């Protein structure tokens, strides 16, 4: 994942006056770069068992549940609300980004 996208994502989660060390930015980028292939590899194994060729967002979330990433299962709610065009409501209900930006 490009470092600029990582930085933008980090700053969205932090307060406006927060600073992030360059080493921390690159460490987070490395974690994300490892996490994405890890999850998709597990999901790909599941797709082969189900004889399916398409990985959906719900598939990824179910694999995350199997791998005990329980906190991230809240993303299911976000995903469902996003599909209903209620992204701001979903984020606010989860305690993030209340208000418009």
UniProtKB/TrEMBL annotation:
Segments forming domain Transcription factor CBF/NF-Y/archaeal histone: 1-62
GO cellular component, as recorded: CCAAT-binding factor complex
Gene Ontology MF: a single term: protein heterodimerization activity
Annotated InterPro entries: CBFA_NFYB_domain, Histone-fold, Transc_fact_NFYB/HAP3
Keyword line: Transcription, Transcription regulation
Pfam families: CBFD_NFYB_HMF
Similarity comment: Belongs to the NFYB/HAP3 subunit family.
Name assigned to this protein: Transcription factor CBF/NF-Y/archaeal histone domain-containing protein
Source organism per UniProt: Handroanthus impetiginosus
């Amino acid at each position: 994942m490009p470092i600029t996208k990582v930085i933008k994502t980090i700053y969205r989660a932090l307060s406006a006056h927060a600073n992030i060390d360059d080493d921390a930015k690159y460490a987070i980028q490395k974690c994300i770069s490892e996490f994405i292939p890890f999850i998709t590899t597990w999901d790909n194994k599941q797709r082969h068992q189900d004889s399916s060729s398409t990985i959906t967002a719900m598939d990824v979330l179910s694999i995350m549940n199997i791998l005990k990433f329980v906190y991230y299962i809240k993303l299911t709610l976000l995903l469902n609300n996003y599909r209903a065009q209620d992204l701001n409501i979903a984020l606010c209900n989860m305690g993030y980004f209340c208000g418009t930006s």
